[in-house]
């Protein structure tokens, strides 16, 4: 009897401590970042992590540098000295995270607006038109479908070879995994490049946990889509606007532990952010802000 209880305890303990697993799909995103220079294209690797009850889409850089970041931070903690690690860590081009919950496929869009982590629900379904065209996309047998979304006309290729009805970004609602999707002007194009199983999956990256400790994303706000677009438009116009009064309180001679001028560091950070926003003006959903303004 004692052995039976011991075995039961081990089984219960194992179940309670079992780590979540995920199927990670890698999508190469080719896009024109600037609406005034559409011929210039960039490439970024994005990931779609699918678990039993949800999927999470984001920039691969947001998780791929976790091990490097952890080593750098632990080294600083051990040495008890500040070190500027911005030069050894690359900033993801896309900060948004899109979560779809299964089986309802409810969509939550989350992004950072300076210190705040802001989310909105996107309940608008895709109205796909499935066509008879078929093709081989990578290693998958795929079928064509079209839809209008976010002010653009989209062409998607999906496969029933993979048991998931999901896709990159907000794309969903087809009877299979979307292996390629692009708008008809080729501003944005995602193509599946590979996948692997992730054991001991943690939906929150180390960098996200670290940002919480430093106060970024401390306010987790859930707002309407209209409110989000209004907040983001103000953010693009003046990225540091919400903390301008706080910045003015920094003494002119204040310095970081490594001797760097705090005021200069903040000015450099603001200039860098303004440059990034200016260079990435070609939104995926081009009618979002326009539609919001029309409603007011």
Describe what this molecule looks like in 3D.
This protein has 296 residues and is an alpha+beta fold. The longest helix is centred in the C-terminal third of the chain and has 18 residues. It is globular, with a radius of gyration of 22 Å. The N terminus and C terminus are likely disordered.
Concise summary:
With 296 residues, this protein is of the alpha+beta class.
Descriptive keywords:
globular; alpha+beta; 33% strand; disordered N terminus; twelve-stranded mixed beta sheet
Q: Determine the fraction of residues in helical runs and give it as a percent range.
A: 25-40%
Class computed from helices, strands and strand pairing = alpha+beta
Indicate the radius of gyration in whole angstroms.
22 Å
Order of helices and strands: HEEEHHEEEEEEEEHEHHHH
Report how far apart the termini are.
71 Å
Mean pLDDT: 82
The overall strand count is 12
Strand order in the sheet with the most strands: 7-8-9-10-11-1-2-3-4-5-6-12
